[in-house]
Amino acid sequence: MSKSLDKNIPYSNMSYGTEPTRLVKFMRVCFLYQIYNFFKLNLKVMLIVVRGHS
Amino acid sequence: MAKVVVLGAGISGHTAVSYLSRALKNKHEVVMVSPNSNFQWVPSNIWVGVGLMTPDQVKFKLAPVYKKMGIDYKQALATAIYPEGDTENEKGYVKIKYVTEENKDVEEKVTYDYLINATGPKLNFEATEGLGPKKFTQSVCTYDHAAHAWENLQESFKKMENGEKQTFLVGTGHALATCQGAAFEYILNIAFEINKRKLNHLADLWWITNEYELGDFGMGGAYIKRNGYITPTKIFAESILKEHGVRWIKQAGVSKIEKGVVHYETLDGDLETKEFDFAMLIPGFAGAGMKAFDKQGEDISARVFAANGMMKVDADYTPKPFEEWKAQDWPLNYQSTEYANVYAAGIAFAPPHGMSKPMQSPNGTKIFPTPPRTGMPSGVIGKIVAQNIIHQIKTGIVEHPHEASMAKMGAACIVSAGYGLRKGQAAVMTVNPIVADWEKYPKWGRDINDTVGVVGTAGHWMKLFMHYMFIYKAKAKPFWWLIPE
User: B234: number of CA atoms within 13 Å, CB side?
Assistant: First the structure.
């Protein structure tokens, strides 16, 4: 895939995108943190839906 | 006894008919007209398209569910509405044509007191030459399209396993197409599956879109709270594509597809081509193609429907430039502009204008996404339309205590980026409201505290959880009404 090709080419579209650090990648699959995120995000979505109509 | 007819058993129509049945069962008549024999949970079609779910896991038969709910289900296609009736019928009616084997092409006039048009979109493959599963590209818009896409994707995987390079092109297949989110999910899932098979070195992945900038998603983009920064969705979307090794072509209006080649025009007016081995491109959407007639049989479709075939409702359709668009232009109760007992829910209603800024190439080609109205907003609109009709039937008062403007309601978009309880990931993006309201939120256009973008396994669990939860709800199992839209 182009991930190793384009991202280091200056001025290419891809070169401007941010990339996750190892810590961020770890946190994305860290079970405890993701369990917390799961409940937090579900609650947020539910509140948004419920508040969005009368 | 009142009679409510719902056209279309998609997310919006099915939600509406479920609430109507719960409130009116045994006292009033509720009729569902849909040419489809199955309900499908469209968001999971992405997983069918990469072979992680079968079509049977995302669909179920409607007839037994409607029987249980006491709904008169007619498997037929609505072809025309006569809101004033005709010389034989005082009441408004819908002309339908059955699609079942035993009654094929038999026509019937179904009268109504209230009508909900929730016919959803017509997948307008014809608007782009060479587009669609019967021609040169794939689609994941329905479960059978997704299954077909998976068959073709497997062929590409086999070729890669034999050492052959493959170019994958995913995105929008029309200059005005919407639903970028589904295509975005699909390319991320393809990238995940290729990575899983360790075939990265043989894959060239491309995203092609009519968005001015990535992350527009047909809603003019958004600002999200992320890692201590307020970040535009442009950065969010580009970063995700970069991480998955996907390059992109933006501001592209696909005009024609030939075997292995996509022709597109850019906003600069350049005519370009891109070669591919596997392409999944979302078609433009149009109305279901119904006509409307008055009592004398005169065609009044132009009054009832907008030019794209969607039904005009209580929105402000006055043509105005982008700078003058307001949140108040968007409809509140989805009542037809012409007939008080007719409503349009979900994708069937005509939006007053886009959310993304209209753009045009020097050649005059309009290239920008039209507004998305899928999933969560469709369900909410179906629910409030049903609640207002229930209120009117029970009280006899024509009023709308329930409102759901897309400029006041939020939405969550869960973009799957790989499957698996431990390794699966998804980007969760919430926006509130869907339509930016720059008067109420002058700084960011939306409530920044409700607008987030998070990537992680939790997102995948959420998508999986919603898959099972909403199918449970759609099957009208015990306490289904406790589950929000």
Answer: 8
At A43 the three-state DSSP class reads helix
- Interface touch B461/A16, C-beta < 8 Å: no
Write b or e for each residue in B357-392: b if 16 or more Cβ atoms lie within 10 A of its Cβ, otherwise e: eebebeeebebbbbbbbbbbbbbbbbbbbbbbbbbb
Q: What percent of chain B has pLDDT above 70?
A: 100
The predicted-structure confidence for B181-193, as pLDDT tens digits, reads as follows: 899 999 999 999 9
CB contact under 8 A, B458 and A35: yes
Domain count, chain A: 1
Interface residues of A toward B, Cβ cutoff 8 Å, are 1-4, 6-7, 13-14, 16-20, 24, 27-29, 31, 33-35, 37-38, 41-42, 44-46, 48-54
A6 domain residue, yes or no: no
Residue ranges of B 293-312 with Cβ closer than 8 A to chain A? none
Q: Cβ contacts (< 8 Å) between A51 and chain B: which residues?
A: 410, 432
Residue range(s) defining the domain that contains residue A28: 20-54
Q: What is the DSSP string of B109-156?
A: EEE-SEEEE----EEEGGGSBT-STTTT-B--SSHHHHHHHHHHHHHH
| Displacement of CA B409 from its chain's centroid (Å) | 16
B220 Ramachandran zone, left/alpha/beta (phi>0; psi -120 to 50): left
Q: Which of A38, A48, A52 is facing B458, going by the closest CB pair?
A: A38
Q: What does the alpha-carbon distance between residue B251 and residue B303 come to, in Å, rounded to a whole number?
A: 33
Residue count of chain A? 54
Structural domain includes residue A42: yes
Q: Using alpha carbons only, give the angle B111, B114, B120 rounded to the nearest 5 degrees.
A: 95
Residue A53 is assigned to a structural domain of this protein = yes
Q: Cβ(B132)–Cβ(B283) under 8 Å?
A: yes
pTM: 0.92
Residue A36 lies in a domain: yes
Q: What percent of chain B has pLDDT over 90?
A: 86
Determine the Cα–Cα distance for residues B354 and B366; give it in Å rounded to an integer. Answer: 12
Among residues B64, B79, B92, which one has the least CA distance to residue B33? Answer: B79
* Distance separating alpha carbons of residues B156 and B166, to the nearest angstrom: 7
Closest CB to B402 among A13, A17, A54: A54
Residues A27, B244 contacting (CB under 8 angstroms): no
Which residue's entry shows tokens 């360790």? B198
